[in-house]
Specification:
By secondary structure, the protein is mainly α. Helices cover 68% and strands 6% of the residues. The protein has one domain (2-201). The relative contact order is 0.13. Keywords: Signal.
Length: 202
């Protein structure tokens, strides 16, 4: 009975170790910071909001439960090499900067349509028409062109970030990180899709 219990505990620890290795392999925290910087720049958010987000993160970290702290410490002790394997995250290459500048210059034309609810953020880190009736008939082709150009740049941006890090397989994780960040940085009243694809107003 004791052997079974010990075996079960070892299996659990190995599973947790594998999870930690995967999380460290893709530097999620660094990717999130990079996404926040890029999205803030594109949307023209002020430094005050950046500081507020940092304070909220610090407060959230302080509220971490004792169990999580102990578990994290135990796993770090058991897998010291995993921390050393954490790669640097590169979100600044000529291709990335070019795409970021293109999206930033387009944002002023898109913002009125975010404000009116005509256009919103999709769950796959793109944008789409949310309310076609909010777009004047004469502007519909122009708005569709803006959406198409923006989505093309967004696709290229996520791919360029993955390529800059030498890990094209990271693109889905990078896209998911940006999908969350676009929503977090969206202004009040803007629309976005939830995980099931339904439209929600912030």
């Amino acid at each position: 009975m004791k052997v079974l219990r010990i075996g079960s505990m070892l299996a659990t620890l190995l599973f947790l170790a594998a999870c930690v290795t995967i999380n460290i392999y893709f530097p999620a925290a660094q990717a999130e910071e990079a996404a926040e910087r890029i999205v803030d720049d594109i949307l023209g958010k002020q430094k005050q909001q950046e500081e507020q987000n940092k304070d909220e993160k610090k407060s959230s970290s302080l509220n971490q439960s004792l169990f999580q702290t102990i578990a994290s410490g135990t796993l770090e002790f058991l897998i010291p090499s995993a921390q050393a394997a954490q790669p640097d995250f590169n979100a600044s290459s000529p291709a990335i900067r070019k795409l970021q500048a293109s999206m930033k210059s387009r944002n002023s034309a898109l913002t009125p349509h975010y404000n009116s609810g005509a256009v919103g953020f999709t769950r796959d880190a793109m944008i789409a028409v949310h309310d076609a009736a909010a777009i004047p008939l004469k502007d519909r082709n122009k708005v569709q062109g803006l959406i198409s150009s923006e989505n093309s740049d967004r696709d290229a941006l996520y791919r360029a970030i993955a390529d800059a890090n030498g890990h094209p397989e990271w693109e889905p994780e990078i896209r998911a990180t940006f999908a969350r960040t676009w929503v977090e940085k969206a202004s009040r009243g803007w629309w976005y899709q939830n995980a099931s694809g339904g439209w929600v107003q912030k």
